[in-house]
Amino acid sequence: MRVNRQTVDLSEYPDLVVIYLGMRVRKPRGMLRLLGLGPKLYSSHQDRPDGLLSHEDVIWALFPPHWGARQYWRDLDSLERWTRSAPHRDWWRKFLQDSGGTGFWHEAYFMHGGIDAMYDDMDGKTGLPRFAPAIAMRGRMFSTRGRVENKAAKVAPVIDEKTYYKGEFE
């Protein structure tokens, strides 16, 4: 019996964004962060934010614990709006002040072309840095829209570059 082979018709999703993300424990206290904040962030998809087409939980590794998700978004605009709203915004702001012994990353792939990648407090090589050099997130590289479209974000970032790097611009 032959295999039932299929593909998908994505013509209704010309601006589709597929994003993979993960949180990995780097230090013992990171387990508390992963168990405390991780589920809140990951369960937020159950509210079906506008533009989220599908969400799948992923376990990247058991040791060290490295959990994540694969999400399909209608477009970058809806993904960007969601990342700037609660609870994601609040979690992200807290993480950027202290990663809590974890590392966080995402890689996004765009139907119209382009790849975005971000790695915060990640030890070792995960994803694209396994073969491509990692560089500082400065200037246009500070935001997803800057990295992919060389444009400013349509929605204000959770924390702007000058605030994040306060003291380094003066």
Could you characterize the architecture of this molecule?
The chain has 170 residues and is an alpha+beta fold. It has helices at 30-36, 38-43, 76-83, 88-97, 144-149, 161-164; strands at residues 17-25, 52-61, 66-73, 102-110, 115-120. The protein has one domain (17-164): Alpha-Beta Plaits. The protein has six helices and five strands. Helices cover 24% and strands 25% of the residues. The longest helix is centred in the middle third of the chain and has 10 residues, at 88-97. A hairpin with a 4-residue loop joins strand 4 and strand 5.
Topology:
Blueprint (H helix, E strand, L loop, with lengths): L16 E9 L4 H7 L1 H6 L8 E10 L4 E8 L2 H8 L4 H10 L4 E9 L4 E6 L23 H6 L11 H4 L6
Antiparallel strand pairs: 1-3, 1-4, 2-3, 4-5
CATH-scheme architecture: 2-Layer Sandwich
Give me the side-by-side strand order of the main sheet: 2-3-1-4-5
User: Which shape, going by the Cα principal axes?
Assistant: globular
Strand content: 15-25%
The CATH topology turns out to be Alpha-Beta Plaits
The SS-based structural class is alpha+beta
CATH class: Alpha Beta
**Amino-to-carboxy terminus distance:** 70 Å
What average pLDDT do the residues reach?
90
Let me know the number of strands. 5
Helix fraction?
A: 10-25%
What does the largest sheet look like? 5 strands, antiparallel
How do the SSEs run, as a string of H and E?
Answer: EHHEEHHEEHH
Radius of gyration, taken over Cα atoms and rounded to an integer in Å: 17 Å
Q: Pick out the low-confidence regions.
A: none
Tally of helical runs: 6
How would you classify the quaternary structure? single chain
Number of domains: 1
